[in-house]
């Protein structure tokens, strides 16, 4: 169960990172919070319609993730209340985990539908390039999505078959 939660949190973090949170300490610049998405758009050579799908998906995931993040203070309060009493209050923690499970289920559904919309909006090459970016991370640089494999990295022992 923790693995599923961790994977959900990682996907949400990906969308949150791509969307940006506006608190990086830097000025928003020309693209504001869409700066990280702009780099993805450039790498994938997306159309304006495809970009709208990405932005809407990022907004939806960020809103759902924000609701879950808002539970952090409630979690601390419930744990403190459970420990503070004469007897351990398991009921307070049960309520808390039930609420969190419902919010996680909502986040998982938003992630599923958002990723499905992105998948549908992209062509096969773009889907493949986005999958490579997600799998290997943004450190692949601007040399292109397949530069990682052309260097002989990635466990394939040679150039990428698509390169």
From TrEMBL:
Pfam families tied to this protein: Metal_resist
Name under which the protein is recorded: Heavy-metal resistance
Organism: Stigmatella aurantiaca
């Amino acid at each position: 169960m923790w693995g599923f939660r961790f994977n959900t949190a990682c996907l949400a973090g990906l969308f949150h990172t791509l969307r940006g949170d506006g608190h990086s300490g830097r000025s928003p610049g020309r693209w504001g919070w869409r700066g990280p998405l702009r780099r993805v758009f450039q790498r994938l050579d997306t159309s304006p319609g495809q970009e709208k799908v990405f932005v809407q998906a990022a907004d939806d995931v960020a809103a759902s993730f924000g609701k879950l993040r808002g539970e952090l203070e409630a979690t601390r309060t419930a744990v403190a209340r459970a420990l503070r009493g004469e007897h351990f209050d398991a009921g307070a923690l049960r309520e808390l985990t039930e609420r969190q499970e419902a919010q996680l289920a909502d986040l998982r559904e938003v992630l599923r539908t958002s990723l499905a919309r992105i998948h549908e909006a992209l062509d096969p090459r773009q889907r493949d390039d986005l999958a490579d970016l997600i799998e290997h991370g943004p450190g692949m640089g601007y040399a292109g999505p397949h530069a990682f494999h052309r260097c002989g990295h990635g466990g394939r022992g040679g150039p990428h078959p698509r390169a």
